[in-house]
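Intended use. Records such as the Aromatic acid exporter family protein entry shown here are meant for training and evaluating sequence-to-structure methods. They are not intended to support clinical decisions.
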Amino acid sequence: MAAVSAVDRLRRVAGTRVRRLRDSGLPVLQCALAAGLAYLVARDLFGHPVPFFAPIACVLVLGVGVTNRLRRSVELAVGVSLGVAVGDLIVALIGPGWWQISVVVGLALLAALLFDVGALLLNQAAVSAVLVATLQPPGTTAAFSRWIDTLVGAAIGLAMAATLPSHPLTRARRGLTELLEELEAVLAGTADALDAGDGDAAAAVLERARATQKRVDTLVDAVDAGFEITAIAPLRRRHRGELARLRTAIRPVDLALRNARVLARRGHASVLDGEEPDPDLVLVMRRLAEAVAVLREELTTGESTDGARSDLLDTAALVPEQGGGYSAEVVLAQLRSMLVDLLGATGMDRDDAVAAVARMRPGAPEG
């Protein structure tokens, strides 16, 4: 079992690396072409013989742009430009040297702080100022040419990000797909482990469930990045409605995954304690995994979520009254909570979802 688990982890890691290479193909090409263009413009248009700050600024802006976050790209552009400007000004006045570096870094950081920015801009401003102060040849003056080169590179980088953005839905849909696939696997895996009384299998599912939070954070970042792309690319603005639907689904899916972690932990405990869960409990877990698969398909293709909502309500009607043991009772409670969460992911109001699941409970009054 341990060997199988190791193979599964290796496959997941390999799949992640392949997807990363595939997703980064266009951004890497953008970055490479933009860096060369920035150098060409600064050298031939502005007449700077060695404009190395132009491609550096461009790479810094678009290097973060691989994650498609406009805010961070702009922060880097401002940071490097500010640092080079302060460095050029101070070195032109007092020359290069060890104490001049201290002065340049201090002033660059103070100037950046005036803009009330994050650590990314602050760090970049300081690094850029250090480069200027240390690369200034003794007895020569660059007279702000490096600052102009930096502006050229940053501008070309931001223009490239705006005119050739990635599709705003691609990473968001893929992130949600991966999350819901993990939720399916946890539900189905816990059901299989309970059915077989397999403690090793239950432990492997629990480990998998605990690794899902990072995927939630990645999905949030992808959706936010998608909105930023639609803000700077007019041709992508039609996708804002779909992004809004995905954003609405993130919170309930996150809650469902949190409940799934508790479910997996108590499922593992149930097996170790030798409990005999109600067979309907295992059945409901499998049916819920199937409903999650339908939800995944509908959410990530832009379809109506009516099919998933119907499946979830049908599953709620099958939830048994008792679990069949202390840990199994906790599993049962988590299943009810997950049904509410996932109904919320279909767009149902939470209060309506709670009421709908409550009506399905055995012994609940009709109407």
